[in-house]
């Protein structure tokens, strides 16, 4: 995409996770997302531009290989840190992080190559990372995501940060399956707290599930700042 911060190569899924479902219907049950087979079929229809050979993926014979994390490598030419101005980070989607609560990271997704900065991207939360073997001999590294919508067409005047909220379609989460090549890097979100005190049960584990609106924190590092404008 036309941005000072871009991928050097596609994200790489880390080794397969243990004790996770290996069939599509079983993974749908495990995640509590019955629509997963339909989301996968829509993804493949877009990738292959055809419906031939896709029906098997809506049955228990469709197999997947789940991963708990992916490694992203990207470059920011104006930042001299790292070899060749590169940086590497981990994007995680795991039901238990270091034997503790779940962790599902938020990311920038490239949605329009023809527009720069945030105008060509959306924010999403990664719910699952998996590899999808297909009948044509190809394997597709995928991410199941929950989209976020922009609250306004411009950044917040006071903070300079863009604001987003979880996207809903017919009062349910707006989900999609995407190719991991479209993920640019991790995104750091800060809840829009309001005037009330933060309840003691709010932690970094559950804040994304509790609040309704978030700032996209472009001050988290040099790369995020460049990417946001």
The class by helix and strand makeup works out as: mainly beta
Total strands: the figure is 16
Domain count: the total is 1
Oligomer: single chain
Q: How many angstroms does the end-to-end distance come to?
A: 13 Å
* Beta-strand content estimate: 25-35%
Low-confidence stretches: 1-9
Order of helices and strands: EEHHEEEEEEEEEEEEEHEH
Q: Overall pLDDT, averaged?
A: 84
| General form | globular
Give a quick account of the main beta sheet: strands, pairing sense, barrel closure: 9 strands, antiparallel
So how many helices? Answer: 4
Radius of gyration in whole Å, from Cα? 18 Å
The percent of residues in helical segments reads 10-25%
Describe the structure.
Strands 3, 7, 8, 9, 10, 13, 14, 15 and 16 form a nine-stranded antiparallel sheet that branches. Strands 1, 2, 4, 5 and 6 form a five-stranded antiparallel sheet that branches. This protein has four helices and 16 strands. It has one domain. The protein is mainly beta. β5 and β6 form a beta hairpin. The protein is 14% helix and 34% strand.
List key phrases describing it:
single chain, 229 residues, mainly beta, 9-stranded antiparallel sheet, 5-stranded antiparallel sheet, 16 strands, disordered N terminus
Brief sketch in words of this structure:
With 229 residues, the chain is mainly β. The protein contains four helices and 16 strands. The protein has one domain.
How do the helices and strands line up, and which of them pair or pack?
Elements: E1 6-7, E2 12-13, H1 24-31, H2 36-48, E3 65-67, E4 69-75, E5 86-94, E6 103-104, E7 106-110, E8 121-133, E9 139-150, E10 163-166, E11 168-169, E12 172-173, E13 175-179, E14 183-187, E15 189-191, H3 207-210, E16 214-216, H4 222-227
Antiparallel strand pairs: 1-4, 2-4, 3-8, 4-5, 5-6, 7-8, 7-14, 8-9, 9-10, 9-13, 10-16, 11-12, 15-16
């Amino acid at each position: 995409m036309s941005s000072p911060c871009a991928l050097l190569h596609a994200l790489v899924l880390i080794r397969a996770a243990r004790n996770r479902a290996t069939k599509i219907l079983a993974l749908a049950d495990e995640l509590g997302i019955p629509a997963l087979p339909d989301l996968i079929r829509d993804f493949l229809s877009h990738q292959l531009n055809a419906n031939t050979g896709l029906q098997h993926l809506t049955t228990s014979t469709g197999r997947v290989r789940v991963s708990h994390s992916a490694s992203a490598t990207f470059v920011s030419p104006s930042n001299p840190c790292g070899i060749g101005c590169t940086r590497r980070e981990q994007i995680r989607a795991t039901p238990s992080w270091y034997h503790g609560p779940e962790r599902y990271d938020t990311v920038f997704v490239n949605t329009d190559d023809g527009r720069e900065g945030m105008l060509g991207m959306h924010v999403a939360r990664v719910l699952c990372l998996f590899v999808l073997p297909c009948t044509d001999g190809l394997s597709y590294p995928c991410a199941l995501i929950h989209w976020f919508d922009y609250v306004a067409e411009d950044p917040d005047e006071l903070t300079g940060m863009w604001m987003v909220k979880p996207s809903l379609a017919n009062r349910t989460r707006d989900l999609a399956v995407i190719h991991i090549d479209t993920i640019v890097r991790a995104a750091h979100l800060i809840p829009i707290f309001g005037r009330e005190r933060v309840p003691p049960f709010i932690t970094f584990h559950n804040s994304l599930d509790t609040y309704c609106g978030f700032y996209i924190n472009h001050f988290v590092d040099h790369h995020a700042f460049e990417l946001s404008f």
